[in-house]
Structure formats: C-alpha cells, structure tokens
Amino acid sequence: LESTLLTQPWASVCFGESCFIAKACFGDMGYTLLISDLSSVWYESADAEAVGQRSKELNKRLTASVSSVVQLLCSLLCPVLAGQPHAATSFSCQRLADGLSLRVRSELSGLPFSWDFRCRPAPVATVCRHLVRPLMRMSLALQHQVQELTSLLLQKDAEIEDYKESGATLSRDRLRTEPFQEETFLQNFMAEVRSGAS
C-alpha cells in the first residue's frame, strides 16, 4: 500500500470548516491515509487486524468482514477525494493533541456505520517522500522550463529584430509585441511568489 500511495495524486478536500490536501490507498484488507493542512501532516496505515478491531468497537450491531469494511471505506472516501461526496455520508474532523481524527458516518446494509480514521503525525521520512521530494522535483523542472522559455523568447525577439532591419513589416498591427525584458519578468515573478507566500 505504501508504494501504491506514492502514485496517488493529492486532492483538495474540506471537512467542516477545515481544508486539507489528502491521498489514500485501499487494499483488500487494509488502507493507508495521508492528510495535511500544509502546517502539519498526519498519517494512518491500518492492517486487517486494526480494521477488524475498530469495526467491532465502533459498530457493535454490525457483523461484516474486514474486506467488506475496507471496500465500504473506499467507496465513502474516494468520491470525496474526487470531489464527488455522497449525500448520505457525513465527514467531520477533530484535531487532537497527538493527531487528527477524521470521523465518517454512513450506512452499511441498512444499519448505521461509523468509522474514525485515527491519524498520527507523519514520520519525517513519509513527509519527505510524499511532499518535499515531489515539490522539489517539480520546482526544479519548472525552473528549467522557465529558463528554456526565456531563451526561446530572446531568440524570437532577435529574429523579429532581424526581420525589421531587413525591411519586413507587420500586416496586422495588433500582433505587435514589446521585446521581452528578462529582468523585469523575473522581478515581477518573484514579487508574485512572495505575495502568494504571505
């Protein structure tokens, strides 16, 4: 599940007044959930034994196999991550001193069904693997792309200037553009980044 979780995209979700990014992976007999408010990161990985014990604890009137419970949890949480929550299912979250509790209320076979995803602070290695490294890789890729586009724009400006010096003119004046100013562009870009971070 851990390796499969790496391939899952982050989704933006809101539970009550709180907004998070989250990703989850469900197997036949367990699940892994990663959730963050961009200040903290919480994590839970539950195997068959943990799912079975919690199901008995929270749903005493309900008799269901571990695989059925995991399948139901997947059918309840995955639509939320896809932006399509089910009207008959409610989610709420509670920040605890030692983690985050994500509570689910729904139905299974006509009976009330409750579940608590009991997330603990994620280990530093997990945060690096799922957040820091992908963000750093994307940042470096975007920096490289900006450098390539800047170089291409400067080459295009040189090409246009050469056409002008050869006597070429625009047939449609509305297509005229100002020469690209690399320094001004970078200053404006950094100003936007700083304002977005604040």
From TrEMBL:
GO CC aspect terms: DNA ligase IV complex
Main location: nucleus
Record domain XLF-like N-terminal: where: 9-120
Protein name as catalogued: Non-homologous end-joining factor 1
Domain XLF-like coiled-coil region, chain residue ranges per copy: 123-171
Keyword match Transmembrane helix: no
GO annotation terms (biological process): double-strand break repair via nonhomologous end joining
Record's keyword terms, sorted: DNA damage, DNA repair, DNA-binding, Nucleus
Family: Belongs to the XRCC4-XLF family. XLF subfamily.
InterPro entries (alphabetical): NHEJ_factor (IPR052287), XLF-like_CC (IPR053829), XLF-like_N (IPR015381), XRCC4-like_N_sf (IPR038051)
GO MF, any single term: DNA end binding
A Pfam family it matches: XLF_CC
Localization annotation: Nucleus
UniProt superkingdom: Eukaryota
